[in-house]
Amino acid sequence: MTPALVDTHVHLYADAYDADRDAVVARARAAGVAQMILPAVDLASVDDVLALCDRHVGVFGMAGLHPTYLGDAPEEAAERIGPLLQDRHIIAVGETGLDYYWSREHEERQRASLAAHARLAAAHRLPLSLHNRDKKDSDDASRDLVAILREVKAEAGDALTGVFHCFGGPTWLAHEVLDLGFFVGLGGTLTFKNAGVPDAIADVPLDRIVLETDGPYLAPTPHRGSRNEPAYVALVAQTLARVRGLTVGEVAEATTANARRLFGLPDS
């Protein structure tokens, strides 16, 4: 029997699941997904996350402000994240980070928000879930993100940890992630033929990898282009097993142990 899986990053509250959300959860259970972690993107989504944590066993949440939502967020939004971290369902801070892909109009605010989230995570000893996206042939966001984390790490030490979700490089970034004591989160892009993710994680040991879907986005092959859902984390595990020359059971056992250690999840 294959060990249980953990989807460490799925937007289960998204509108894409409104018609069949309970069925999505049931399919995840049938696929061996024992636990799911839901990142927030803004203040309203934190309420949605908490409602789903109350509704479903094995569902846990994060509180945070996604960088692409900051332009519409009130100036005091970041100050309202701290109190939300007291809720028993909140086990991480996020999703936060930097996104220079769509626009750099709010990049100063993005950097300030990331630093504030990182300090909150360290103060509450909760892991940080990081979004990181650049335009093609640029690594400005990656370099700024690492610089900010290093600054906070210098203050907080081992109290700051977390995961670079939807990791895809650039190649040099994996070494920085490991040096910071962070994990890499692998999802559907690992299965994409020309995305280069296997090369980007070539030097990342298995004990620093967690699995995710980022559903409803970035569905893995053979579902690419359709709605993603947490059951598909099993396809990510299968691909990682093939890339590493391991059994699916070995990948599931290791990545689930990693997720439970990083996020402080119960064993079942």
TrEMBL record:
GO molecular function annotation: DNA nuclease activity; hydrolase activity, acting on ester bonds; metal ion binding
Source organism, top-level taxon: Bacteria
SUPFAM superfamilies on file: Metallo-dependent hydrolases
Protein's UniProt keywords contain Metal-binding: yes
InterPro entries: DNase_TatD-rel_CS (IPR018228), Metal_Hydrolase (IPR032466), TatD-like (IPR001130), TatD/YcfH-like (IPR015991)
Gene3D superfamilies named among the record's database cross-references: Metal-dependent hydrolases
Positions contributing to a divalent metal cation 2 binding: H131, H165
Residues given in the record as a divalent metal cation 1 binding sites: H9, H11, E95, D214
One Gene Ontology cellular component: cytosol
One protein family per Pfam: TatD_DNase
Keywords per UniProt: Hydrolase, Metal-binding
CDD domains per UniProt: TatD_DNAse (cd01310)
Family of this protein: Belongs to the metallo-dependent hydrolases superfamily. TatD-type hydrolase family.
Name the UniProt record assigns to this protein: Hydrolase TatD
